[in-house]
Write a structure and sequence with these properties.
Helix content is 21%, strand content 43%. It has 260 residues and is of the alpha+beta class. It holds the Pfam family PhzC-PhzF.
Length: 260
Amino acid sequence: MELELYQVDAFAEGVFSGNPAAVMPLYEWLSDELMQRIAMENNLSETAFFVRKGEYFELRWFTPELEIDLCGHATLASAHVLYEYLDYTDPVVVFETRSGRLFVDREGDLYSMDFPAWPCSGIQVTERVAKALGARPAELYMGSRDMMAVFESEDQIRALAPDFRLVAQLDGMCLICTAPGLDHDFVSRVFVPEVNIPEDPVTGSAHCTLVPYWAKRLGKSKLLSYQASARGGLLQCEDLGDRVKIAGKAVTYMKGTVIL
């Protein structure tokens, strides 16, 4: 069996930046075990698989260890593959996922994703969090999936050197760290050692939590975000109430054939 495979840098201005995702278009679903083994072999934070079902596409995401409920950069990468390589011409891609229907449209070289908003509630800043991050955040929040630590400056975010063993013991899948930006509305870094991703380069799904928080705090609906990982990534965001728009560019790094 031979299957097409694409590797795409999402939220990237060029190769070697943004967040790399593998994308595998399928005519029919493989077994869960085989998809998990392919994701493990790819050894990227996410591998996306999709199958066309009439006017929409079923989309699933796998880390090297497990299937997850929502992934932004691999969704953007999947839309990029459809438009660039699979002759998709409709104005919007509709993905059916474990997080409901997600929508992606393209304007020029910018892909815009329509995702659910995930509000969060303030909780007490604990010693466990401060020790795990090696720094004490000014505020701490818990959302439906992730924990979010808010700092006072971009310099603090860039200087973080977490103890990933301790971060993995905290509540939530992702630990999002964020602060006001110097050249952007806000900056962030995202740590996910629970699923063996010490630091995710650019995390679209984290902005389901980040965008509602910063829109309310800054009193504006349109926001420019930068994820300050080593690779870095720029995201154009908009708060829509119960939904958020998350937009960025994508660049193909590699395409090839998997032989099984």
